[in-house]
Specification:
alpha/beta; Rossmann fold; 9 helices; binds nicotinamide-adenine-dinucleotide
C-alpha cells in the first residue's frame, strides 16, 4: 500500500482548539486529509482559516459511543481509509482540590472524556486500519498521568488509564502494521491551561527543570513524527515532552 503522506487520512479529536488545532494545521501542510472531531463548533471558523487541505468537521461529543461509531463509519466511507488517529480531546475537570474533596460526578466526567472517549475512537477505528494492515494511533496522555499531580486526582488518574490503554493496544496490534503510542506533555499554554486555577498552573510549571512551558511547535514536531510512517519500530510507548520532568 502507498503510505505517502499526501494520500493519508487522519482523524483528530479536539481539533477545534489548542494542541488538536495545531496538529491539524501542521498535518494539513503535508497534505494529509483530515477528519476533524470536536464538540466545540465555534472553533470551526478558526479551523477553516488555518487548514490547508481537504477536511471534514464532525461536531460530536466523543463520550457518546453510538455517535463515535457512526462518525467513524461515515469517515471511512467518505475518505475510503483511515491511516492516523490522534486523540487530542481532553478536559481537566475541577483541579486544585484534594482527593477527599473530589466530586464523584466530576471525576466520572473527566474519565468519560479522557479515557472512554479515546477508547471509543480507537475501538471503531482499529477495524478500519486492520483492513489495510497499517495505522498510527496517538493518545494524548500527560506528565500528570506518569507522576500524579497533587490537586488533580481525576485528570492524573484518567491520563494514567490512557497510558495503560496505550501499552495494551501497542502489544495487541504489534504484528499488524498498526502502532499505538502516547505523548505525555508537561505544560503548553492553551485554553485548557488558561481555565485552570493559577495556583495549580504554578505548581505544574515550577516542576519543569527547563523552567519554561513547552511550545506548540515542540508538540507538533514530536507528535507528527509519532504518527509518521518513519516511526515504525516503536509501539506501546509514552513519548516524553516535559522539559526534563520525566526521567523515565
Ligand atoms: N496543554 C497542556 O499543557 C497539556 C498538557 C498535557 C496534556 N494535554 C492534553 O492534550 C490534549 C489537548 O489539550 P489542549 O491543551 O489542546 O486543550 P484545549 O482545551 O485547548 O482543547 C481541547 C479540545 O477538546 C475538545 N473536547 C473536550 N471534550 C470533548 C468531548 N467530550 N467531545 C469532543 N471534543 C471535546 C474541546 O472542545 C477542545 O476543543 C488534552 O487531552 C490534554 O489533556 C495538554
Amino acid at each position: 500500500m502507498n503510505n505517502t503522506l499526501s494520500k493519508q487520512v487522519a482523524i483528530i479529536t479536539g481539533a477545534a482548539s489548542g494542541l488538536g488545532l495545531a496538529m491539524a494545521k501542521k498535518m494539513s501542510e503535508s497534505g494529509i486529509q483530515l477528519a476533524l472531531i470536536d464538540r466545540y463548533t465555534e472553533g470551526l471558523s478558526q479551523i477553516r482559516e488555518e487548514i490547508r487541505t481537504e477536511f471534514e468537521f464532525y461536531p460530536i461529543d466523543i463520550t457518546d459511543e453510538p455517535a463515535v461509531k457512526k462518525t467513524i463509519e461515515k469517515i471511512a466511507q467518505h475518505f475510503g481509509r483511515i491511516d492516523i488517529l490522534v486523540n487530542c480531546a481532553g478536559i481537566t475537570g475541577i483541579t486544585n482540590i484534594k482527593s477527599h474533596e473530589v466530586d464523584t460526578e466530576n471525576l466520572v466526567k473527566v474519565f468519560n472524556v479522557n479515557f472512554m472517549g479515546s477508547w471509543f475512537t480507537s475501538k471503531y477505528t482499529l477495524p478500519v486500519m486492520l483492513k489495510n494492515n497499517y495505522g498510527r494511533i496517538l493518545h494524548f496522555a500527560s506528565i500528570a498521568g506518569k507522576e500524579g499531580n497533587a490537586g488533580m486526582l481525576a485528570y492524573s488518574s484518567s491520563k494514567a488509564a490512557v497510558i495503560g490503554m496505550t501499552k495494551v493496544q501497542g502489544k495487541e496490534y504489534a504484528e499488524t502494521g498498526i502502532t499505538v503510542n502516547a505523548i505525555a506533555p508537561a505544560v503548553i499554554k492553551t485554553a485548557l491551561v488558561d481555565k485552570m486555577p493559577e495556583e495549580q498552573v504554578k505548581y505544574m510549571t515550577d516542576k519543569i527543570p527547563m523552567k519554561r512551558c513547552g511550545t506548540l511547535d515542540e508538540l507538533v514536531n514530536m507528535a507528527c513524527f509519532i504518527v509518521s510512517p518513519e516511526n515504525s519500530f516503536t509501539t506501546g510507548f509514552v513519548f516524553d515532552l516535559s522539559g526534563g520532568r520525566a526521567t523515565y
